[in-house]
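Case study: 4-hydroxybenzoate polyprenyltransferase.
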Amino acid sequence: MEKLIVYLRMMRPANIVTSVADILAGIAISGVLSSGFSVPWLSMLFLAVSTACLYGGGIVFNDVFDAELDKIERPERAIPSGLISLQNAAIFGGLLLFAGIALAALNSLTSGILALLVAIFALLYNKFGKHHSFFGPLNMGLCRGFNLLLGISIVPEMLYSHYYLAIIPVVYIFSITLTSRGEVHGGNTKNLYIAAGLYAIVIFAIAYFAFINDRLLWSLLFLVPFTFMIFRPLLKAINQPIGKNIGAAVKAGVISLILMDAAWAVTFDALMMAFVIAALLPLSLWLSKLFAVT
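Here is what the predicted structure looks like once written out:
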């Protein structure tokens, strides 16, 4: 049981909940819930578990590639502390990524390809991207963008008309990753101001889509708390750009993805799904108290 908890800690369970929220938002965007046909519950399950495995595997490999650095900066993590060997962690991460791709492929070949792209870009980020000031955040953003598309791929044909929506999570995760640059040693306010501007673009973009779909009022039900949740800690970090404040801003940015996904769902006329997604927020917050988010 103790070993299981260590592996769970490596996977960042609170973050995994947000990746499932991305899938549910993508499913809502696909229109499959309002198509008049029976809901493909099994496909929804495949994609939800797929993204959980992909995200967990990507995070595990983050620790694998950072093992030497973590001996200095974060010696309490599982690998540098000796709780899990580097080899076992790599095997565990590989199995998770393989399972994520396989489960997605059970829905469709398109879903499998998207899952493969998520896995590839996660590995690229962990090995190379995180060390680059621009391509690192972009790389991480692409992982989330493909994840939203993975949800939409429950109806593969819908990707042709909705692929461009992936730009929004790319921009948002770019902002969070940019902010996280100063999480350990503190950061400069320039990155934080850029992140604030990009956050604003994301909020107005979702509001625009909600407006043209005549769902703005419902969307604001989720966008307003989303705005409050991300900007409150970010403004504090701007005033005092120390590691603790930046870490809090990153944590809030990651977990509040759930509210952003709920806003996406209601924007595409899936109100019940929006409430289901929003209900994941307390779960993610609870898990964030038990397991690290960053």
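For the exam, be able to explain this: The chain has one domain: 2-286.
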